[in-house]
Amino acid sequence: MLAPAGSATPWCVAPARGELGGRHRASPSFREQRLCIARGGLLLLCLRQKCRRRAGFAAATEKPQEKPREKPREKYGPKDGFASETRLRSWLQSKGCRGLELLDLGKSQGVWLKPQLSEEQLTAVAKGGKVVEVPASAWITAEVDSSADIEEALAAELLHERAKGPKSQFSAYVDFLWRRDLSHHPMFWTQEELAWLSACGDVQQAVLELQERTRLRAENLRRRFPKAPEEDLSFALCLVECRAISSSSGGALVPVLDHLRNDSTGSPAVIVGDEGVQGGPMVAVSLQDLDPCFELRNCFDTVSDQELFTQYGEVQIKGGEEDVVPEANVYNEVLLPVRVPAEHWRETPKAVKKAKLGLLQRRLGLDLAGKATLRLPMDAISGGRLLPLARFVHTPVPVLDREAKCEELIDMLFKDCHPSLLPGNEDSAWGVQPTEVPPAPANLGQLKVEVQARILAAEWYESCLASYNRMSDRIYKDLEDGYLSGAGSGSQEIQLAEITEAYYKAKRKDGKTGRSKAPKQCRVLSPCPEEGTVTVQFLENGVRQTIPEDWLKTDAGPAAQEPSVKRQRGLLGLALLACQQGMIQGCYQLMMEVLQLGQDILARSKESERAALAQQLPDAWQREHDIQARVESAEL
Fold it and tell me: Which helix (H) or strand (E) holds 271?
């Protein structure tokens, strides 16, 4: 129960200012794409299995979680189907590659176990088995010293083999690589498309730096390959950027294994490496018992969604029967810009404000006079800076003794802060901090500070979410405008969010409903191939209808690559924003129970009502810290 904070603090306290509620709408990202954000997503984004970059068996420092064996699925594989790679398979078999008979390769990327496997083959893909083995003679490598640019050297080797044509011993592999579609990769984004990333400034900067590195490397390659088309130079560099695998002897392009998708869930199906033996072979070893139709994925990089987007040109999603959901990335970090609006300093004397700002800059490296940046989820949970920072802003400090009191306050609030979040300790490994749960507010004065602090933190979250929402809306509008001003995609495949034309349900003179005489522009919402139908929304009036697939005019307009590529890039940007929003919303929801309960207590004018509600506060406080502890210790 809350007690009065001394005689100076009366029981009857006015409600804290800045009541929450309704200040940001639900995330619009992937609205028609039906990509939903898991509520409470922070719990799935726990920090665990800190394996090192790229391939190698030393990475498996922690036992990965085992998934239960699943029954074979009737439908499996990528949406765009499997690749035609008969020539590649024949060549790899001649090189002594093992395990090919178990696998299907996706057109763009991804490797799946076949739907029908014998008992002997199931034994081969059991936990600890070598699923695939690719000898070094099938790799494309570059011999360079440690000071050389390995990416540029590997791209040069790839271009060299392509220039040989059929005479190259790697011609089957090179031809297979050159049929991959990488046009969606951020390396090729235009300035207009890069503007979509303004809500993720760190990602935008990383892509700009990647494009500049690519430009410089392409200039060097042009001098070595003057007859090579410009697009081949960039394509080779992009292949290396998103498909090269590290080995004991350096970087390499390894057939089949370079087709695996990256896994950031903390529970990859396989681990890829060369067993520390220079010269290979490169193998994929199963980390669990695998079933037919299972996708083989490896954790090539322990990277955030932003880094995954920049390097690999992908954001991990998983398919479901009804929805496509962003996958939890246990290595994900989201930067949260924070600033303190003037109204939050209103009750703080100028001298105290100056002392607090100076101390935050000096001790924590946070410049709240401008815009500082926090890291989620680390800053949102135990050992983080977010709530201690907001509490520091709102805790009253006497003017006369401000310097000493601010020092004392910052020591108390940040005593459990994790070293990796403090200046000069960025490389400290994140882990569970063995600290006791701080006590819940014990009186109305403490509760008022806590509520004000959480309102400030909520505003930081809401501001970030609002910027993501604006960018989602902008991308969505640009995709519509791009279609209306250009040609159709020319693709015969029904795509989510595609803008096309379709016939609609219209009433005939006899009163029956049939197909309209002329088509109208529409947006594809949700194809249903099993039933041969598709749900669309007509742009003219916003009406949604479920119509037969053959009512769609997938050939509307002449075939044109540009709108299709722009749509792919736009959907990729929307996927990134959706994943970022999921992290923000998870952190936001984590603190809401205590905040809303605290606001309710402060809003009550009757002591009996406040006392009854106050009895719930310790339990809500403990629940919040229990969740944080489970997130940190990766028990979920």
Answer: strand 270-273
